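User: Can you model how zinc ion sits in this protein?
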Amino acid sequence: MAHLEGLGFVADGFDRGSYRRDDPVEVARLRALGDARALLIAREMPVLRKGGKELDSLMPIGEIAALGGAEVEALLGLAPGGAPVFAALLKDEAVELRSDASDGFLDRRVLVVPGREDLKLIDLRSIAVGGLLPPDQTAVLAAAKALMHWHARHRFCANCGAATDVAVAGWRRDCPVCKATHFPRTDPVVIMLAVDGDACVLGRQPRFPKGMYSALAGFVEPGETLEAAVRREIWEEAGVACGAVRYFASQPWPFPASLMIGCFAEAAGRSFKVDRVELEDARWFTRDEAAAMIERRHPDRLTAPTPVAIAHHLLRRWTYEGVEFE
Ligand SMILES: [Zn+2]
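Assistant: Here's the modeled complex, given as structure tokens:
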């Protein structure tokens, strides 16, 4: 995949070191190293350290104990340079909820660590969109958040209901009663731009920021190919029949644990019927209009998603370079 400028949550330079996870002695050795670092998550929000104007997500590993210990720790891998990086899910009591103005799109909870002015909790979407951390750090933080979200929501065995134990350096949970093993989830989502000549389909959900239109998206269902999921979602949400489907690129999307699979779909015509339950609006947009949205000069102040999201890059590719189907 060609580099997509600004695409968020992609940690290509990070060594996950998965072969080390099975060896508890090796994991303990890495954790005891002086340069071991921890990414802290509390109530699904990253904890950052303020050093002057700079923010940092990588804490000394001793902060886990200083903040009351972790519910779960996981070895995420090795940073460039070799420092081991762990993720830790702090206990809920480690942070205090001061207010909550969440709007269904942004997590606007105000969480604080009592007595620690040097620490700041900021939701991951704001970190990514605001460029508050170097992109590599944001990407690894995304992995930490998604993995810790899974642990927080999967404490009990889905088969027999018993409490499960963390295993394999935080990458599995084992049931001591029925012996079932449980692995972290990643939910595949297709996100697609249906195109026909000089026009493409964009839609908006009621929870989107005002004026923003994006590519349509939906979860892949059991027993379904990516291509079939793309055609089904476009048909269900917009009433557009599509033929050829082309893969573009993918992106981890830790809200809470999706893998966005970006595709282009070749529409069989301009028929249209919007599913008003799923979408507030959807319609065909011309290439000129798409360019105006990307460049933030649309006369009706309509906008496209930011470069953090793969939807931006789908739209950008088609708008400026076009897409060919075989
Ligand atoms: Zn069980």
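A couple of observations from the model: The mean pLDDT is 95. The helical segments are 24-32, 63-66, 124-130, 135-153, 226-238, 287-294, 310-320.
User: Helpful, thanks.
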